[in-house]
Amino acid sequence: MQKALLILGLLCLLLAALWPWLGKLPLGRLPGDIVIDRPGLKIYIPVTSMALVSLLLSLLFSLWRR
Q1: Model-level pTM?
Q2: Are the CB atoms for 31 and 48 separated by under 8 Å?
Q3: 6-65 per-position pLDDT tens digit
Q4: d(Cα 9, Cα 22) in Å, to the nearest integer?
Q5: Pairwise CA distance, residues 58 & 65, whole Å
Q6: Any idea where the domains of the chain sit in the sequence?
Q7: Three-state secondary structure call for residue 26
Q8: Rounded CA gap, 63 and 49, in Å?
Q9: How far apart are the C-alpha atoms of 29 and 35, rounded to whole Å?
């Protein structure tokens, strides 16, 4: 458990350091992501982006278990 938490913490630090460059990726603005923009209301539902992230994480974890 300690090893997993340490790796997760280091991964968070790495993502925070790379955030200026990661923000330029088109993730979050893919076709299929739902945006409702009305006066006084903005709702954003990243359906396609979350499906892609889920697929990549599932692939990574299945490779990590082997």
Answers
A1: 0.56
A2: yes
A3: 988 998 999 889 888 877 877 667 888 888 999 999 998 888 888 988 999 899 988 888
A4: 18
A5: 11
A6: 2-65
A7: coil
A8: 21
A9: 9
